[in-house]
Amino acid sequence: MRIRGAGPHATTIRMDAVTGDALTISAADVWVRDLAVTSTTGLRTGHGIVSTGSETNLHNLLISGHNNGVWLKSGAEFVSYVISQSNLGSGIVLDGSITAQNEVRVLLTQANGNALRGFDISGPGTGIHLIGVTAATNTGTGILLSGTLNDIWMVTPEISGNGGNGIDAASTTTDLHLVGPFVETSTTTNYNLAGKLVVLSGGFSGGAANGLVLSGTDAIVSGFLAAGSSTVGVVLGATSSRVALSNIIVSRGTSATVPPTGVRVDAGAAAFVLLGGNLSDTTTPLGGTPPAVSRITGVIGVTRALGVTLANGLSDNIAIVGGGASGDFLNITGPTAAFSLGGFLGGYDGQVLYVINNVAQAMTLVNESLTSTAANRIATLTGANVVLRAGTSFATFIYLSGTNRWLLASTN
């Protein structure tokens, strides 16, 4: 079946009554194109286009002033060049609660200025591709993924100015691919990704409280710029695990305010890798608690720590103020008499820590200090304390998660 107007938006289905749907489709293989489906009242409780038939194809449509603009309840749909705007509900709804949303393609479609969400996609469903879509100035989230969804692709979406999150993917989303996304000025978080098997490449985040929040497992983020976040550029949530970040930049962008935190790792996160990036344009480049199994290398802004002031006597659980990057060093000042080191906070597997004593006092490295938290203790590997000479001295430690100790590697 084919429903076609006289030309691009030249034929209009106008529904000004407050009840009933403008166009319902129940047959299979229906094509609708070149129509405007509008309401002048803007108060309609009915929807613009509702389809329960399989293989529905929508092309070159303008839908506005309804409840949901487009509500598709079956799979294998193709939606292209559709504008769904100023609706009381969501712009485009892919609803898998009746029939699974399988093999759906949405191309160059806009869902802007709706009172709920731009795109509302709920599972079950698999093989859903959104290419070149736009979701802007919706009251709620720009694109919401909920329910059991698998093999979701978003290629160059443009999401901006939404009242909730920009892109929100539930923990039941698996195998999510974001290629070249542009998301900015969401009220809360630009990217809130809780799913499993997430790949984000070439992404941009502008403004918002948080740029990117990851709270699922098995995520790869490569080539990501978070500019002007007011709270954190990238957050690894407490439930995140096996996350790899590479070539990450967090900066103020066009904002005059430096982002407070570049990357924050919440307690409970596991197996974290950060390879390459620039977090120097932040107040705290790396915050939180890096997990025990981590690698942080080649990141500008989290490679050193200077001016750690200690007291005379024993200091336990010493904070590594440079953010916990592998290759941090502590430049100790403060003691006016002999002093001792009993342990350091926040070690993760393979972390290298350099300690330089720049005072004219002897520095003792305490073996298994009982007053330091067990996971923060030093193991000198001699079975005894190691006393370095009065004056400038140097020590290198490597953290080993198997023993949960800082192993003394060398002294000078």
Low-confidence stretches: none
CATH domain class name of the largest domain = Mainly Beta
Mean pLDDT reading: 88
Number of domains: 2
| Radius of gyration from the alpha-carbon trace, in angstroms | 28 Å
General shape: elongated
Total helical segments: 0
Structure in words:
The chain is built from no helices and 40 strands. It has strands at residues 2-4, 11-14, 23-25, 31-38, 49-51, 57-64, 70-72, 78-85, 92-95, 101-107, 110-112, 119-122, 125-131, 134-136, 143-146, 149-155, 158-160, 167-169, 173-179, 182-184, 189-193, 196-206, 210-214, 217-227, 232-236, 241-251, 261-265, 270-278, 284-288, 294-300, 305-309, 313-315, 328-333, 339-341, 352-357, 363-365, 378-379, 386-387, 393-400, 405-411. It has a 12-stranded parallel β-sheet, with no helix packed on it. Strands 8-10-13-16-19-22-20-17-14-11 form a 10-stranded parallel beta barrel. The protein is elongated. The model has no long low-confidence stretch (mean pLDDT 88).
